[in-house]
Amino acid sequence: MTVPGLVPKPTTIHHRAGTTTVPEVISVCADLPLTRWSTRALEDWLGAPVRAVPAGTPAWFRVARSDDLPEGAYRLLVDDAVVLTASSAAGVINALHTLRQLAGPEAFAPAPMPRAEPLRLASVLVEDEPRFAFRGVHLDVARHFVPKAELLRFIDNAAAHKLNAVHLHLTDDQGWRIEIPAFGRLTSTGGWRADTTIASGPAGPRLKGRPHGGFYTANDLREIVAFARERGVVVIPEIDVPGHSVAAIAAYPRLGVDAPTVDVWTGWGVHDCILDPSDFTLNFYRQVLDTVMDIFDAPVIHLGGDEVPYDRWEGSATVRRRAADLGFDSVEPLHGWFLGRLVEHIAARGRRAGVWHEAVSPSLPTTAVVNAWGGTDTVSHCLRAGYDTTISCCSHLYLDYRENDAPEEPSACGPVLSTQKLYEFDALPPAVLAAAADGGARVTGIQAQIWTEYLDTEEIRDYHSYPRLSAFAELAWSTERSYPDFLGRLRGDHLARLAAAGIAYRPLEGPLPWQQRPDVRAICGR
Of 371, 440, 479, 439, which Cα lies nearest the Cα of 379? Predict the structure, then answer.
């Protein structure tokens, strides 16, 4: 019996002779506790009920603890029985996801699939550990709201690829997506926009002609956090400040410079309407962050800090006076200073703040974790400045980019990012390793980004995510990689898993007829 191709590729895999048949009842003896989700998953994936047996009793499925294994690592032996060895819950979950792939595409169906006969598993020994400790995927739910059911599905599929973090971009100029009970207008006003830009051309922006919005209640988000936690995934919330804040300012104008009257933005890009760095604004966002930290258990709470134009600060006598009172020669240092006050507030609750790399400045505390979305030179710069840094480079890790330039390719953000280019990304060149060694900071991990300006439906989000997110998972997990080998495992086994999971992935040969969209350049006459 052939061993299915595994994605991401394990550190080592030893094929063994023979098979094992899943018994009618799966007896389980575990040195590390199996969660409710783990037990239910085993039953669904292997097609038999699970029964726990006392320690020392023979069992077909055994979970053994070994403190010699690194965090997240595991050994999985499938022989006459199954023996899973790990040092922690993370290793157990990673091993279970490997076992799921060994069980065939049927194990990826949303509901348990009836089997005509008991499942047979190929005999194999897998010894495996992650390349990066943090393996994240960022999802922009602000530009286009992602309904809760789709978000839960997205998290489940990310977990199946051994990704262990989902970064939710919850607020931006175009929408505020998290309920804050103390400030109801953030969602009643800030959660909805009058229209959405399809594209812009010589004649100006072309709009869809319909409003868009939505938000998650506090209980929605608690459910999402719990759902992810069961699967070994941490959900990192992002509240973007002091730029990308038009939705908040539309709801509460006093948050903006000189209290402007502004609507939730219907366009894309960078809006010049940013937060007033006042005590009122800081106190407002401290309350917001308290609610966020009550809902999310993530060790990192993200503050954004990217793409902040200073025009309105420079044009405001009040803001210029604020900068002078703080001893600054210009308004620019207010950026890091404002973020720094919120970094301190987050630290007082036992968490760390996250920011995008534009926030790095002498006035930003080095306790912040930075997502460097520029080139690897940006990663090196952040590390040398003393910040722990997550590799998030747009050149290779932005999945809203198009797969290629073919005219039938669905329109999206302009640049091209093929699956092969992503897969072959040199995330740790010598300059990054040297910067980490010299600066005393560390590379925390790697993260892919899915921005949704032009990804307005579940189907198009699926299309842009997979199979590139499968390639990213292997980049994040596997030290030894070969694109031809990956492509063989993708064609041979993994695309069938994606199909069984109901993912409307991009076929390797190009989009199906119903996946094509008109090119935005043709729409706008460019």
Answer: 371
